Amino acid sequence: DAGITQSPRHKVTETGTPVTLRCHQTENHRYMYWYRQDPGHGLRLIHYSYGVKDTDKGEVSDGYSVSRSKTEDFLLTLESATSSQTSVYFCAISLQGLKAEAFFGQGTRLTVV
Amino acid sequence: AQRVTQPEKLLSVFKGAPVELKCNYSYSGSPELFWYVQYSRQRLQLLLRHISRESIKGFTADLNKGETSFHLKKPFAQEEDSAMYYCALKDSQGAQKLVFGQGTRLTINP
Fold first, then answer.
1. Sequence spans of domains, chain A
2. Domain regions of chain B by residue span
3. Quick one: closest CA in B to A43, which residue?
4. Per residue of chain A (113 residues), what is the pLDDT tens digit?
5. Is residue B39 less than 8 Å (CB to CB) from chain A?
6. Whose CB has fewer CB within 10 Å in chain B, the N or C terminal residue?
7. What is the CATH number of domain B3-109?
8. Interatomic CA distance for residues B93 and B90, integer angstroms
9. DSSP state string for B35-78
10. Looking at the complex, does the CB of residue B51 fall below 8 Å from at least one CB of chain A?
11. Residues of chain B positioned with their CB less than 8 A from the CB of A5
12. How near does any CA of chain A get to the CA of B96, in Å?
């Protein structure tokens, strides 16, 4: 495994509450990504980061925010969780370079009730 | 905007039969394309990248810029190939945005 861990691995939360997922890497990779995986939709990019404090929106960023205050941590926050945000969330890291592969975390299963 | 389309959500073939998983993309620049695989209860992992022109586990993929396709092929399917397959495209611009298709679940029947 590429030194990338996600926490928590499972979480159940109530509608309207804020939730923060953490992605931690020990590889010093510059690029970090957050995806959600849903049946029929595959992996959809939520936000990504290309350096400390440098982030940008992906395809499905509404309702999510991110922060990256240091290289090793990329936090995904659901400001006010909704049932439509029930999903499996994956973090990925990548070195710089077009050929560089992405390494994925184990995923976080989030259920919003 | 970059977009990856995998038209087949499910694909089922018999062991020993050829396999082709389709991937089409739209991108204005020069794309960098990948295939990732997710076996049951495992992390998503790289299968192959077009720039390397490699063959991994008997799979190959050729980039066809005219048809904007990057189909994954294997001449003889094996049961251990059953998995979820994702085609991905990396933005060649600075931020290196990485987007995935919807995925194809491949089932190899004995």
1. 4-112
2. 3-109
3. B100
4. 569 999 999 999 999 999 999 999 998 899 999 999 998 889 999 999 999 999 999 999 999 999 999 999 999 999 999 999 999 999 999 987 777 889 999 999 999 99
5. no
6. C
7. 2.60.40.10
8. 9
9. EEEE-TTS--EEEEEGGGT--BTTBEEEEETTTTEEEEEESS--
10. yes
11. none
12. 7
Going along chain A, which residue ranges are E strands?
A: 4-7, 10-13, 19-25, 31-38, 42-51, 54-57, 64-70, 73-78, 87-94, 102-104, 108-112
| Interchain contact, A96 vs B96, CB within 8 Å | yes
How is residue A81 written in tokens? 């969780």
The answer to whether A48 contacts B44, with C-beta atoms less than 8 Å apart, is: no
The answer to whether B28 and B35 have CB atoms below 8 angstroms apart is no
A4-112 maps to which CATH number?
2.60.40.10
Q: Is B94 an 8 Å CB contact of chain A?
A: yes
CA distance B38 to chain A (A): 10
Contacts of A68 (CB under 8 A, 6+ apart): A32, A49, A51, A52, A53, A54, A55, A74, A75
Asked if B3 is an interface residue toward chain A (Cβ–Cβ < 8 A), one would say no
The reported pLDDT for the residue numbered B94 is: 65
CA distance B96 to B110: 40
Which residue of A98, A103, A108 to mutate against B (max B Cβ within 10 Å)? A98
- Residue B6 to chain A, least CA–CA distance (Å): 10
